[in-house]
Design a protein that fits this description.
Helix content is about 70%, strand content about 0%. By secondary structure, the protein is mainly alpha-helical. The longest helix is centred in the first third of the chain and has 39 residues. About 40% of the residues are buried.
Amino acid sequence: MAVVRRAEPVDLSLAGAAKESRGATRGRLRRWLPVGIGLAIAALMVVVAAAAPLIAPLSPSAQFSDAVLKGPGVVDRHLLGTDDYGRDILSRVIWGARVSLEVGLASVIFGFVLGVPLGILAGVSGGRVETLIMRCADMLMAFPTLLLALIIVAALGGSLANEMLAIGVALTPNFVRLARSLALTIREQDYILAARALGSGQLRVMARHVFPNTLYALVVVASLYIATAIRTEASLSFLGLGVPPPTPSWGNILSEGRQYIKCCPWITTFSGLAIMVAVLAFNLVGDALRDLLDPRLKGE
């Protein structure tokens, strides 16, 4: 007589948990894939900019009279073609990365170092100090970032240092307003009141309690402003107010090639792509830092 065995019961809760776990894993992968791509591109650009003298196949200012306005691959030594002076486009784009990233990083650091302490001071102090700082920030923010940077560079003259200073000053009021708003949200917290009750002075409260608790948001915004600074630098160079020729930057490569855009589009194409990729990469880096540093997202 055949023995009929009863099927083992299936634990639906375990199956549901496994399915939910797989879904969560796929969700994390979808979220972190673009972030990883952005980090990789940003890191690659930093390496290329730092190692430009070693990576660039030719000098960015070297002129080859036998290779004027040659397209990509037409001449073996010019993989991305040449411009109207016979200069190698690949070498100029690589060296342009150094200028753009230097200006982007330095100007954001300048705006951060100048604007964050002022914003925290305004938020913690209140009263006349807050009013004075915020009215000055409002006056600067009345001008668009590019216009304010353009005015400063036009007054000081076009150079790498003046570009850094101009863009840094233009970004400063943004950091002031953000730091103040963050300080306002935490200045009445219990730990701030306890520190004051124990005799901590204004500077100690700002440095030990307010600044560390606002750092994650400030770092995220700073990384996003690197993209803004790169765009602004390219715009200034395109208008002839950036680094003086023959020093290459992505903006002045675009400017020099615009008159040949119909017949020789490669001059502007590759520098334009470099700007686009750099801006996209640093925006993705900002998203990554937000997910990493924001305590509300750490458990997700």
